Q: What sequence folds into this?
DNA sequence: TACACAAATGAACGCGTGTTCATCAATTAC
DNA sequence: GTAATTGATGAACACGCGTTCATTTGTGTA
């Protein structure tokens, strides 16, 4: 049923070796013979079997892509850019979706059985043991959106501290004094960094956080936590959210309570997802440099595929302040 | 470097056949021996090489997933559900992202070289020739979101006509008379069906379409087209949009012009993406049954993988009317 | 024409696995 | 106690490909 190189060889009247060479760039074969073989192959609908090709130790052309909640605005945006860049490298993304509660290890272990040439991990909690297992398996790993302490692992991450400083500068410039924080999942690396970045930047200006609540990075959770903050005692005049989705929820919460944004309460987010610029929100935020992040991640990955002994790099990319109307 | 079954066999003191049997469910092997082998394998970090396993004609466990603009709210939602359901089948999604302008054929052709066990196509224009090429290759295909005329191809599709009738019923109930349409990409199957469904349902009630414009299914395009409609001569008192994203853009456009929704202009969409229920929009729409669609698609796919001669099915799933505040 | 050398070609090998095929031990049936 | 049956085991094979290794063909020089 499947058409193999033998079929092409038989129909073209050449040896199977010739067929293989016709598909191998730079192989020693007469040009007209190669053309003939390729024509026959195309006629028969033949394509070299990637599974067999990779068996001899060659590359599979597969890259495992570990992401979390695909439907979230930020992750889907990221996945789109990443999958396009992987394809422009001539490779294919093997999608490994890890929902917030799920374990990343068994999932990635399974994917490793496909002899992926590399893995991009942008979700879940990554242990050093996991990274080393992948490396030992011959699949270099790049971690995105977090930095493993102790180094030794290539990683690309937004400079969350710098981003928070930009937001706090705006906070100070607009004279906010009662500032609250709505964080994401407590264990998330970005959440920890952004929270610390915020408190540090605030204290550097003699400001303090008046309220703290935690959601789960969804719009709904942002709305709930903002409602709690704004209806509680001593309501804030500014809410800094751990990501844009929660900030959008917070804006909706403020409006439901009849508060004006930014006059009564300023609200800002983090990431600059597409929805942040939609008119009803016009969210002041800092842009997570997704395109550059993906580009750097794949650069690191290809470097390491070529030279496994190269020292690990940690790339910190600066975000860009986006002032809109919400603060 | 890579640990193979031979390594496990050597360390466990058994033949390589025994190792293979230990990993094959239902194979003839002593239970304690199997346990021992599995323990040694786990110790060495061994996993059967899927590439080699599939070489003998076995299944690869890969399913090609063809989607379009991943970052769009609807597609990312769909992809999340699909990828989870594929994994719960014990298989893996090979992501094939086809941007609106790109050709689906060469991309899918490449993916076929990985001997995928099946393909779910939810984007791009699908020709019968393409489907037959996949089938000939041993990879059954299920098409989602469109129906190939002439049948012969398994497909799952929302009943767009029924959805439009629901919306028109609401349209009539609220006494709208100047109705406009903002469509998506002209060549898109869903766009054609929804447009025809709308005009048919309108004429059945003695209504006609007063204006027609076309965007590209994005929020921005919905905003642009709605601005043009609402500032033109004889502005509509209702706008039906080809999807929710454009409807969200249309709501923003109306508000920018100082119009009240739904009092001055009613706006509705299609799909019921998560953002449709966000408070600033509260979009009246019809829910595209994504979970059921994915479920049916995978049911058809697994059926066809088991029996390639089964007759093709066309499944039409009814949408659900979601009345909110925008109309 | 004779020789050296490069280019092109086909046979054979190995990649890691599941499976078939004999072989052998252990049980059951008579 | 013997024959028949079952269950477990290891060797060998096939899967489809890239690549190496001889071997053959073609080209340029003396």
A:
């Amino acid at each position: 049923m499947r058409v193999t190189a033998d079929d092409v060889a038989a129909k073209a009247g050449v040896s199977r070796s010739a067929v293989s060479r016709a598909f191998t760039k730079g192989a020693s074969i007469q040009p007209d013979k190669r053309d003939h073989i390729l024509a026959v192959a195309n006629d028969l609908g033949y394509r070299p079997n990637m599974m067999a090709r990779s068996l001899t130790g060659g590359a599979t052309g597969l890259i495992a892509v570990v992401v979390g909640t695909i439907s979230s605005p930020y992750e889907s945006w990221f996945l789109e850019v990443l999958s396009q860049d992987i394809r422009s490298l001539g490779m294919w993304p093997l999608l490994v979706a890890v929902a917030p509660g799920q374990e990343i290890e068994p999932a990635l272990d399974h994917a490793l059985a496909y002899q992926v040439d590399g893995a991009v991990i942008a979700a879940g909690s990554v242990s050093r043991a996991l990274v080393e297992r992948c490396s030992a398996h011959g699949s270099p790993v790049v971690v995105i959106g977090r930095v493993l302490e102790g180094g030794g692992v290539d990683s690309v991450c937004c400079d969350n501290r710098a981003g928070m400083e930009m937001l706090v500068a705006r906070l100070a410039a607009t004279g906010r004094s009662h500032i609250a924080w709505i964080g994401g999942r407590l264990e998330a690396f970005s959440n920890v960094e952004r929270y610390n970045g915020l408190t540090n930047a605030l204290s550097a200006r003699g400001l303090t956080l008046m309220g703290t609540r935690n959601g789960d990075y969804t719009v709904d959770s942002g709305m709930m936590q903002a409602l709690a903050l704004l209806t509680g005692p001593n309501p804030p005049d500014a809410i800094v959210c751990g990501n844009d989705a929660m900030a959008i929820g917070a804006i909706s919460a403020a409006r439901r309570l009849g508060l004006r944004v930014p006059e009564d309460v300023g609200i800002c987010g983090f990431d600059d997802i597409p929805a942040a610029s939609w008119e009803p929100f016009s969210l002041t935020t800092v842009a997570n440099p997704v395109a550059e992040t993906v580009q750097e991640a794949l650069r690191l990955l290809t470097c390491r595929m070529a030279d496994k002994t190269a020292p690990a790099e940690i790339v910190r990319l600066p975000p860009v302040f986006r002032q809109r109307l919400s603060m």
